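User: Structure please.
Assistant: Input sequence and predicted structure:
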Amino acid sequence: MFIFLSICSMLVPLSMILLGYQWKDNPPKDRHGLSGYRTTMSTLNDDTWKYAHKYWGKINLVLGIVLMIVSLLVLIFMRNHTNFEMISVYLVFIQLGIMTLTIIPTEFLLHKHFTKQGIMKNSKIKCGN
């Protein structure tokens, strides 16, 4: 049971690492497709799309690595605990909450550097690859 729950508990951090690594430099091509960091602000134009993925990707890459390390330590130290199954479920919910919270800094940066129409406020910012 330990191995199964450990693998399940690594899915969220692993997806954060993989998506973060991929999207920080190569956002999905189609802004109107099914995948990507899709918010009202990020889908305004190609500049906001690239900018959002660049920063969301960086945030998720770093947080994914941190979450994976912390999660592994929690799983290893708690494996003999009588409520190990519940601890692993709580761990996944905490991971999902942290992944969801990555929207806040990304949207903050989008609103800081772009107008509501998607026009860049400061031309010194690099949005491209």
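The helical segments are 2-25, 46-78, 84-101, 103-113.
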